[in-house]
Structures are given as structure tokens and as C-alpha cells.
Amino acid sequence: MTLSRLGIHTLRNLEAVNLRPSPRINLIYGENGSGKTSVLEAIHTLSLGRSFRSHKHKPLIQWERDRFTLFAQVRHGGAEFPVGMERHRNGDVSFKVSGKPVGSVAELASVLPVQVIDAHTFLLLEGSPKIRRQFMDWLVFHVEPSFFPAWKNAQRCLKQRNSLLRRDRIEPSELAVWDRELIELTQRIHECRLRCIELFEPMFLSLLEAFIPLPGVSISYTRGWDKSKEYQQVLADNFERDRQLGYTQSGSHRADLRINVEGQPAADVLSRGQQKLVVCALKIAQGYVYAQQTTGQCIYLVDDLPAELDANHRATLVEWLERLNTQVFITGVEREPLLADWRDRAEVTTKLFHVEHGTVSAEAESALQ
Ligand SMILES: Nc1ncnc2c1ncn2[C@@H]1O[C@H](COP(=O)(O)OP(=O)(O)O)[C@@H](O)[C@H]1O
Ligand SMILES: [Mg+2]
After folding, report:
1. Between the chain's N and C termini, which has fewer beta carbons within 10 Å?
2. 96-146 pLDDT per residue, tens
């Protein structure tokens, strides 16, 4: 999928933005505070109903305005269709795809998949398992259709089970009902994740191998409960402890995807620059697997690239993005370093945008030479 048009109205400091992005590389430069990240936030919000910067919706609405509106023309294969959303200060929200209201964010996310690479992403290796689980589940969501319903139902079962655990008297038959469903869903979630990791791991390792000499890199997936036991057994064995804690300790909600170097956590061994590149490889490998397993392409949003990677590491990421053959939006403060990364890649259609005090203007193609 690519955006052939993008409209942003009264989102943060962006008053009225209308762009015709390149189907490939879009470079967005401007001073700090000019509105670059806000452009990426707008695309992300159109895709997932929320920004990557904050889960709160109100800060996105321009001060003293009562709503923001987003619009895009999406190209997928030979077809083109509009996607739009509007969010009001009073909490009202509407999403539309091809003029028809869309009920859930999950539906929206499958229409317009996006990947973000920003300063926060680089915490993937050292951050909490939750961040890595979310990272892993992005791909699982997009390539395993049975994953999302199972995940959603498992969340519901866990909530019910946990509230039951906190009661003074627990009716065994009541608990058994939730356990039975949870066991089945947990197994299904684990199998979906496992299938995805089997596709993902070789892709990630081959990307890395071609670009950075890091011997001994491996991925370790842990499913969230003792690998020597059935989940049913774990629930039974942990019952007293779960009851004391008031929640279910083990399960697919505790899964993790760790990156090791020679058996040590990557965050403990690699330099900052290497870690950032490993994170980029993780993100790009997902885009490759996504493209391989579906009919679409995901859009990449890369915030403040020159600030995050030095020229060498940037060149590697640029090479990966180019080969991915997808639509990319990259921001940076200075025009020159951004342009320099793409100048010698004449075969890639690149557009340059300048952001100034919330207005975005396209530069003439001749400016790219
Ligand atoms: N709700 C809002 N309404 C109006 N302006 C906002 C709002 N939220 C943030 N801003 C302003 O929007 C500007 C854009 O920020 P940002 O997109 O992060 O800039 P950049 O990425 O170019 O540094 C900032 O100057 C910020 O103060
Ligand atoms: Mg920014």
C-alpha cells in the first residue's frame, strides 16, 4: 500500500496540509518544532487510530480547535481508495474506508500497515518484554488471520480469571470454564507466533549478515510459560500463587522475543550504534516478511534519521529501505544530510518536503539534483 495523497487538518501545529507523496521515498526536513514528527503522527493515526508518540488523543487536536481530520488516497495493487478519520475533543471518532464507516481499529490497521523507526524504537532491545511482544505481534497480526480474535478473547479470559482469583471464595467449576478457554486460546496464540518467527528469523539474520559483521546473533522466543510443561499443568501448579498475587502469572501474555549475541542479551554486548542497526534490521525484516506473505507493502515512518544514526549506519538502513521497495517517510532537521543519503539513487523516486511553522511545501524535483 502507498499513499498517493495525504490531507491533514488541525492536527498539532499542522493547519491544512495537502501532499502528493512519492510512492517511494519522501524526505521531510525543517527546524525543531516545525511539525515534521506531526506529519508522521498523522499517517500513523490514520493507520492505527492513535499516534506512536502518545496514546492520548487530545494532545493531537490543535489548541483551541474541536477536532482534527485526516484523509488519504491509498493505492493497493491496481486499485485506489480513500481512507479518512476525524477525532473530536468530546471523544467522538469516525473512521472511513472507501466512504464506509469502519468499526474497529484492527480493521483499519490491516488496510494501512505502518512501521515506525524513531528514538523510542531503539529501546526495543533493552526495554520491557511488553515492547518486544508488541513488536512481534505486529507481524503475527498481519500474517496470521486467526491471531487477533484469539488474542482478544485471551485478554478477556485473563481479565475474568484474574477477577475470579481475587474473590474470597472461588467456585472451581467457574474457574474451570475460563481455564478451558484460556488454555485453547493460549495454545493458538503460541502456534501463530511460532509460525511467524520461523519466517522472520532467517530474514532478520540474513539482513544482518549482509551488512554488519556480528557473529553469534540469535533470536530467542519464550512462549510465556515453562517450556517443559503443558499450559494446563502450569495453571494447575501455579493456582495458589496466582491466587495470592491476584493475577495469572504465566501465559502468552508473558511471551518475549530476545536478541542475543553469543548467548548474552544484545543490549549488554553491542555498542549503541550496533544496537540501533539491529533494531532497524528487526523492523525491516518484518516489512520483508509482510511483503512476502501478503499482497501488500507496509509504509515506513522514520523520525529524525540523521540524529539517530551516523552516516555509515544510515547508509545501511537506506540500502535496506531501498531494497524493500516500499513507501517511506523520513524526517530530519537539516536538508543536506537527508538528501545526501538518496542523491545517488537516481532510480528511486524521491520527493523533498520542507516544513515551516506547520506548513508543508514540496520542493521542485530539480532541487534534488
Ligand atoms: N495540540 C497542539 N496544537 C498546536 N500546536 C501543537 C500541539 N501539540 C504540539 N504542538 C506544537 O507543534 C509543533 C510541532 O511539533 P513536532 O511535529 O514535534 O515538530 P518537529 O518534529 O518538526 O520537531 C511544536 O512546536 C509543538 O509545540
Ligand atoms: Mg520531531
Report:
1. C
2. 999 999 988 888 888 899 999 999 998 899 999 999 999 999 999 999 999
Contact 248, 224 (CB under 8 A): no
CATH number at residue 329: 3.40.50.300
Ligand number nearest to the C-alpha of 118: 2
Instruction: Kindly give the number of the ligand 1 atom that is closest to the alpha carbon of 41.
Output: 17
Residue 340 lies in a domain: yes
CB 224 within 8 A of CB 250: yes
Residue 85 pairs with which residues in a beta bridge?
70, 95
Give a yes or no: residue 86 inside a domain: yes
- How many angstroms is it from 92 CA to the middle of ligand 1? 23
Q: How far is CA 193 from CA 114, 170, 182, 267, 322, in A?
A: 19, 32, 16, 23, 28
pLDDT digits (tens, 9 = 90+) for 152-207: 999 999 999 999 999 999 888 999 999 999 999 999 999 999 999 999 999 999 99
Pocket of ligand 1 (CB under 6 A): 12-13, 30, 32-38, 59, 61-63, 355
- The candidate with the shortest Cα–Cα distance to 293, out of 189, 207, 203, is 203
Say what the pTM is.
0.96
In angstroms, what is the span from residue 258 Cα to ligand 1's centroid? 34
- Nearest atom, ligand 1, residue 333 CA: 22
Q: Per the structure, how many domains does the chain have?
A: 1
From atom 9 of ligand 1, which residue's Cα is the shortest distance away?
Answer: 12
Nearest listed ligand to the Cα of residue 12: 1
In 3-state terms, what secondary structure has residue 365?
Answer: helix
Would you say residue 12 lies in a domain? yes
d(CA 46, CA 93): 12
Ligand 1 atom 25: residue of nearest CA: 33
Ligand 1, from 8, 10, 11, 13: best to mutate by most atoms within 8 Å of Cβ?
A: 13
Instruction: Give the angle subtended at the CA of 39 by the CAs of 36 and 43, to the nearest 5°.
Output: 145
Q: Is residue 101 part of a domain?
A: yes
pLDDT for the residue 369:
66
Q: Print the domain residue range for 354.
A: 1-113+298-369
